[in-house]
Amino acid sequence: MHRSLSRWQWGVAFALAMSAALLGRAANEQHTNRLIHEKSPYLLQHAHNPVDWYPWGREAFDKAKQENKPIFLSVGYSTCHWCHVMERESFENPEIAKLMNDNFVNIKVDREERPDIDQVYMTFVQATTGSGGWPMTVFLTPDLKPFFGGSYFPPEDKWGQPGLTRVLNKVAEAWKSDRERIVASSDKIIDQLQSAIAISGGANKVSDAVARKAYEQFASQFDAKFGGFGGAPKFPRPVTLNFLFDFYGSNPESKEGNRALEMSIFTLRKMAEGGVHDHIGGGFHRYSTDKFWHVPHFEKMLYDQAQLAMAYLNAFQITRDPLFEKTARDILDYVRRDMTSKEGGFYSAEDADSLLAQGKSEHAEGAFYVWSKDVIDRLLGAERAKVFDYHYGVEQGACKGFRLSLRRRAKGQCAGRSARRVQKQKHSDPAARCCRHGEEVRPNEGES
After folding, report:
1. Residue 215 and residue 117: Cα distance in Å, rounded?
2. Closest CA to 434 of 408, 378, 396
């Protein structure tokens, strides 16, 4: 059994393992691009890709204009799981890299370093596709106007998505054969976006009609059984919850106002009880991979914690329900302990991927948070483990479905005995890792 490690010790172990891996990789590396001179951790992760990456700047812009090539813009950040996946699958692939280098000027941007650039092109992607996320992929004209975009692309057609190889070929072909139409289309898109921004930015206050329309849209998407809005993957969406609190505050006596309150309260309760909430370490994971709030994508974001703390505090002030007070304190305690640097700043995120075992370089999504029933029995003892298992629906062999089904009972049903959360995550190698666990309970900073 591994000795329990503090967050700082895990951080040092992870950093040493990653440094060793990067040094070993660099020693055998055939490719080094311009990102090697950058300071961003995210950009440096891509410095040895065979893709001829440029940082955002004049050198890349001039090259695109001189060679009359479109720009391939890729935006992400260092703790983004799917950014890592797209790098491994596509940007480290020599054939895809050649396709990119021959037909595009390739620019890589860290959204945490340049949120202004990220916001501009994310607005385009959301407006043209109806959704957005990272990694963000956008094709630009040489004068930086977007004409096609999306988020993660697999290397080949998969899951009903076009593969990056096909997208690159189609865009390169269209640019060569129908460039004038693409440029005209990008001009039109920019004009429409600028008009929409000017209209939305002209008012200092949201009108009652707009607020009611937003309420009606959220009400139509509300999941009355499990909380939240829409299906899987299911995000906490604290901005929506706080809007509904404000809508209730403006209409506390109306049927719609009370319905808005009910939707927010119910969703916050389901989230607090589910696996998207880290019941041991505190705070909330990025989103749930299912509609039940059970199995999280394990990344944790600072801005999610800030907004969710506000939502739970709003819920507590309105209802005085101790669950909401406890959850708000849980979030803030986690931020103070794990996301605050000794210099006084805040860490922006925690990576979804973590070490599988101390002293080894292999890592996987959620490894730090995943537990097996055998470990629960060993750590809690047979009698307490029975209460825990009953409370959270832990079953021997439950991981055959690659996720742990939660059936959380009320406190009275558990004979008043406390229990802590167990989380299960689907792994890429089900046979070998089905019951892989992260044994270390994360203690306070400095403990061992």
Report:
1. 30
2. 396
185 and 138 share a domain?
A: yes
Q: Are residues 183 and 220 in the same domain?
A: no
* Res 287: pLDDT: 93
In a domain, 305, yes or no: yes
pLDDT (tens digit per residue) in 192-242: 777 766 655 555 677 889 999 999 999 999 999 999 999 999 999 999 999
Q: Is the peptide bond before 236 cis (omega within 30 degrees of 0)?
A: no
Pick from 141, 146, 104, 142: nearest CA to 123: 146
Cα–Cα distance measured from residue 302 to residue 227, given in angstroms and rounded to the nearest whole number: 23
Condensed to tens digits (0 to 9), the pLDDT of residues 2-30 reads 334 445 444 544 444 454 445 444 444 68
Q: Are 111 and 118 in contact (CB under 8 A)?
A: yes
Could you give the number of structural domains in the chain? 2
Which of the listed residues 338, 370, 388 is the one where a domain comes to its end?
338
Report the CATH number at residue 179: 3.40.30.10
Distance CA 53, CA 48 (A): 9
Is the model's pLDDT at 127 over the cut of 70? yes
* Residue 393 DSSP label: T
* pTM score, whole prediction: 0.71
Q: Report H helices in 155-250.
A: 164-177, 179-200, 208-221, 238-250
131's tokens: 């959704």
DSSP annotation of 303:
H
107 is a domain residue: yes
Q: Residues 76, 53: contact at Cβ < 8 Å? A: no
- Give the SS3 label for residue 97: helix
Phi-psi region of 230 (alpha: psi -120 to 50; beta: other; left: phi over 0): left
Q: Return the DSSP state at 223.
A: -
Using the 3D structure, point to which of 314, 338, 362 is the last residue of a domain: 338
Check residue 418 and give its pLDDT.
Answer: 35
In Å, how far are 84, 252, 347 from 125, measured between CA atoms? Answer: 20, 37, 27
Does residue 179 sit in the same domain as residue 218?
no
Range of the domain at 169: 31-200
Beta bridge partners of 363: 355
Q: Given a cut of 50, is residue 77 above it in pLDDT?
A: yes
Strands (E), 226-340: 287-288, 296-297, 300-301
Q: Over 80: is that where the pLDDT of 361 sits?
A: no
- Residue 111 sits at φ, ψ, to 5 deg, of -65, -25
